[in-house]
Amino acid sequence: MTGIFFKGEKMGDTIAAIATPQGEGGIGIVRISGDDSLNIMKKILRPCPAEVKPRYAYYGNIVNPENENVIDEAICLYMKAPHSYTCEDVVEIQAHGGIVSIRLILRTVLDCGARMAEPGEFTKLAFLNGRMDLAQAEAVIDVIKAKSEMPLQIAERQLKGRLGTEISEIRESLRDVLAQMAVNIDFPDEDIEQITFENLTLALKEIRSKLAALLATSATGRMLREGMQ
């Protein structure tokens, strides 16, 4: 998965980045994730209540706390851990989508203690914190890059955990077979139902069939994502 795994990051930092495409637009979003997210919001939002409720929208001005100069008006949303995309405290600042204003907001957030997020780091945190499995993390980029409805639908199914569920079921089937074999080997004289060679072969054939079906879908998925060569 391009951009999600990288070297040099410090886990536990509060990170920030612009979450909307670069350029002019009606809305620009700066996302902050980490333990210091709420404190940063309180430093730069005017007015900001003493008690900020999760999942409430707070309207005000984003200011430079050093001189109280107004950068832009904005709506701020606070999502308390673990109920956020990264499973950490998250703040999203929704301001106007001007290039200068949104960059100034990000710079102010960084000056208040956050560090610049690496490409894909928000999704990496979601994966590391158990918010999604690796297949779902990979599906995020597929959703973003989908060029038509069909690959989007496939990516959405994967994002909801369909692939991970199928893999988990296959893993459990293999564990069951291994457990039964271990019982037969360790306790041959006990009054325990013994797995026969025929049943073992049947179980393994069924697992192999499921794996083959998954592998067969990979070529189609790659063609839909990357196009035909």
Report, as a whole number of angstroms, the end-to-end distance.
21 Å
Output mean pLDDT. Answer: 85
Major beta-sheet overview = 7 strands, mixed
The backbone outline, from C-alpha atoms, is elongated
Please, could you describe this protein's structure?
- The structure is a single chain.
- The chain contains seven helices and seven strands, in the order E-E-H-E-E-E-E-H-E-H-H-H-H-H.
- With 229 residues, the protein is of the alpha+beta class.
- A hairpin with a 6-residue loop joins strand 1 (15-18) and strand 2.
- It is elongated.
- The model is unreliable at 1-9 (pLDDT under 50).
Features:
single chain, 47% helix, seven-stranded mixed β-sheet, 7 helices, 229 residues, disordered N terminus, alpha+beta
Briefly say what this structure is.
The protein is an alpha+beta fold. It is built from seven helices and seven strands.
Fold topology:
Elements: E1 15-18, E2 25-33, H1 37-44, E3 45-46, E4 57-64, E5 69-79, E6 90-97, H2 99-111, E7 115-116, H3 121-128, H4 134-145, H5 149-159, H6 162-186, H7 197-226
Parallel strand pairs: 1-7
Antiparallel strand pairs: 1-2, 2-6, 3-4, 4-5, 5-6
Helix pairs in contact: 3-4, 4-5, 6-7
